[in-house]
Write a structure and sequence with these properties.
The structure holds 2 protein chains of 2 kinds. Helices cover about 0% and strands about 55% of the residues of chain A. Chain A is built from no helices and 11 strands. Chain A has strands spanning about 5, 10-15, 20-25, 30-35, 45-50, 55, 65-70, 75-80, 85-95, 105, 110-114. In chain A, strands 2, 4, 5, 6, 9, 10 and 11 form a 7-stranded mixed beta sheet that branches. The radius of gyration of chain A is 13 Å and the shape is globular. The N and C termini of chain A lie far apart (about 30 Å). By secondary structure, chain B is mostly beta strands. The chains are: A mainly beta, B mainly beta.
C-alpha cells in the first residue's frame, strides 16, 4: 500500500460508455498527476493538478476529462473512447509541483476499450 | 522536449548475476530518480539522487548521479527472482518542472 489508491483496478468499457477512474491519496500531498502507460511506450504525462488547480494539460483529447475536487481526490472521466486508449492509467502524487521528493504512484487502472 | 534514453530496453539474466542499466540525456538534470514497477502495479521509488557525483545505495541497489549531470546509473548486485520488473529512470531539470521518464528497462531473472 503506497498511500495512493486507485479504483477500479480493472475496467472494460465500450466505445459509447461513460466511466470514471478514481484516485485518492492519504499522504497530505498537494500535487496530483494522471499518467498513461501503453505497451512499449514511456510514461505519458496527461494532467497535473497543484493545490486543486490544473497546471498542465499535455495535449490530451477532450474525451478524457479530469476533475480534482480537493487535494486528496482526483478523477478521470472517460467518454467515447477509442480502442487505442486501452492502457494502464496511473495516478501519482507529490508534496507539491515545485519541489521534488519523488512521485508516489498508485497501482493503476488497467483500461480495456472494446 | 527533454528525452531520457534508457538502456538496455530489456535484460534476461541468471539469478546471482549483477545488473547494470543507465540513462543518458542531452540535457542537464538536477535530480535523478530510479523507480521499479512490478507486474500489475505502479512504479515504486527506489533511489533519489540530488547531487552530481552522488553515489547512493539501497540494499543490493546502487545508483549514481553522473558528474556531467546528463546521466545516471543503476546497479543491482546478486540478482534474485523478485528483482523481475521494469526499472525506470526519471529526471528533473529545475524545481517546478515535471519529471521526465526514461523508456524503462525490463529485467527478467532466470532461477
Amino acid at each position: 500500500e503506497t498511500g495512493v489508491t486507485q479504483t477500479p483496478r480493472h475496467l472494460v468499457m465500450g466505445m459509447t460508455n461513460k466511466k470514471s477512474l478514481k484516485c485518492e491519496q492519504h499522504l497530505g500531498h498537494n500535487a496530483m498527476y494522471w499518467y498513461k502507460q501503453s505497451a512499449k511506450k514511456p510514461l505519458e504525462l496527461m494532467f497535473v493538478y497543484n493545490f486543486k488547480e490544473q497546471t498542465e494539460n499535455n495535449s490530451v483529447p477532450s474525451r478524457f476529462s479530469p476533475e480534482c475536487p480537493n487535494s486528496s481526490h482526483l478523477f478521470l472521466h472517460l467518454h467515447t473512447l477509442q480502442p487505442e486508449d486501452s492502457a494502464l492509467y496511473l495516478c501519482a502524487s507529490s508534496q507539491e509541483v515545485r519541489r521534488i521528493y519523488g512521485y508516489t504512484f498508485g497501482s493503476g487502472t488497467r483500461l480495456t476499450v472494446v | 522536449g527533454q528525452q531520457l534514453n534508457q538502456s538496455p530496453q530489456s535484460m534476461f539474466i541468471q539469478e546471482g548475476e549483477d545488473v547494470s542499466m543507465n540513462c543518458t540525456s542531452s540535457s542537464i538534470f538536477n535530480t535523478w530518480l530510479w523507480y521499479k514497477q512490478d507486474p500489475g502495479e505502479g512504479p515504486v521509488l527506489l533511489i533519489a539522487l540530488y547531487k552530481a557525483g552522488e553515489l547512493t545505495s539501497n540494499g543490493r541497489l546502487t545508483a549514481q548521479f553522473g558528474i556531467t549531470r546528463k546521466d545516471s546509473f543503476l546497479n543491482i548486485s546478486a540478482s534474485i527472482p523478485s528483482d523481475v520488473g521494469i526499472y525506470f529512470c526519471a529526471g528533473q531539470t529545475d524545481a517546478g518542472n515535471m519529471l521526465t521518464f526514461g523508456g524503462g528497462t525490463r529485467l527478467m531473472v532466470k532461477p
